[in-house]
Amino acid sequence: MEFMTHSSTFLLPTIPDGHRPSLTYALVVLNQRLPTFAPLLWEHAKLRLCADGGANRLYDEFPPFFPHEHASDVRNRYKPDVIKGDMDSIRTEVLDFYTSMGTKIVDESHDQDTTDLHKCVAYIRDFMPNLANSNLCILVAGALGGRFDHEMGNINVLCRFSTIRIVLLSEDCLIHLLPKTHQHEIHIQSSVEGPHCGLIPIGMPSGKTTTSGLEWDLNETEMRFGGLVSTSNLVKEEKITVRSVSDILWTISIKKL
Ligand SMILES: Nc1ncnc2c1ncn2[C@@H]1O[C@H](COP(=O)(O)OP(=O)(O)OP(=O)(O)O)[C@@H](O)[C@H]1O
Ligand SMILES: Cc1ncc(C[n+]2csc(CCO)c2C)c(N)n1
Question: What is the ipTM metric for this complex?
Answer without folding.
Answer: 0.92
